[in-house]
Design a protein that fits this description.
The structure is a single chain. The chain is mostly helical. It folds into two domains: about 120 residues, Endonuclease III, domain 1; about 70 residues, Orthogonal Bundle (Endonuclease Iii, domain 2), CATH 1.10.1670. About 55% of the residues lie in helices and about 0% in strands. The chain has twelve helices and no strands.
């Protein structure tokens, strides 16, 4: 179901939004910002905001020199854009002051940054540092894991789902779980009215049988 790689996440996810020709530290900064913008936001909207930011000049120094109103206009209409302007400015200042305009290399340091949670941190580690530190669990991964009963008991928050999945999923597939299930959730296993009749898992999925 995912072999065509034609879901929004495949063309516009965080792994596609950065400038691959930029200096390594700039690329890593762009990965971090794309994930900060992506929270509560469709990939299409995040991708468009990242394009505007890159055209504006998406570097630590340039963002620090951009006033809040202009930054807000560049990222609007991502979800909670006003709050994200604040987080981006605060995080960028920390990166310049404490990390020589690069980003932290550990999950523990990443989650200390304003607006960065565990899901973002693990995805940053994977995409920016090529280091698999954990499974990036967003709302799609959380929902589908519970529908498939990939957790021993129903989990209520993504962080619980991450811990439950990491208990049994082989580490060598941790990197692919996020993009695999996000695309599946965007196209088939929708939050409301999932397309169970089209799903190749329908005969083994507890949620499909229940519905």
């Amino acid at each position: 179901m995912r072999k065509a790689r034609d879901a929004p996440v495949d063309q516009m996810g965080a792994g596609k939004c950065y400038d691959a020709d930029a200096a390594p530290e700039v690329m890593r900064y762009q990965v971090l910002l794309s994930l900060m913008l992506s929270s509560q936001t469709k990939d299409q909207v995040t991708s468009a905001a990242m394009m505007r930011l890159r055209e504006h000049g998406l570097t630590v120094n340039n963002i620090l020199q951009t006033d809040d109103m202009a930054l807000g206009q560049l990222i609007y209409p991502v979800g909670f854009w006003k709050r994200k302007v604040k987080y981006i400015k605060e995080t960028t200042a920390i990166l310049k002051r404490d990390y020589a305009s690069d980003i932290p290399k550990t999950v523990a340091e990443l989650v200390k940054l304003p607006g960065v949670g565990p899901k973002m941190a693990h995805l940053v580690m994977d995409i920016a540092w090529k280091n698999i530190s954990g499974i990036g669990v967003d709302t799609h991964v959380h929902r589908i894991s519970n529908r498939l009963r990939w957790t021993k008991k129903e989990t209520t928050i993504p962080e619980e789902t991450r811990q439950a999945l990491e208990e049994w999923l082989p580490r060598d597939v941790w990197s692919e779980i996020n993009w695999l299930l996000v695309g599946f959730g965007q196209q088939i296993c929708l939050p409301i009215s999932p397309r169970c009749s089209e799903c190749l898992n329908k005969d083994i999925c507890p949620a499909s049988r229940k519905s």
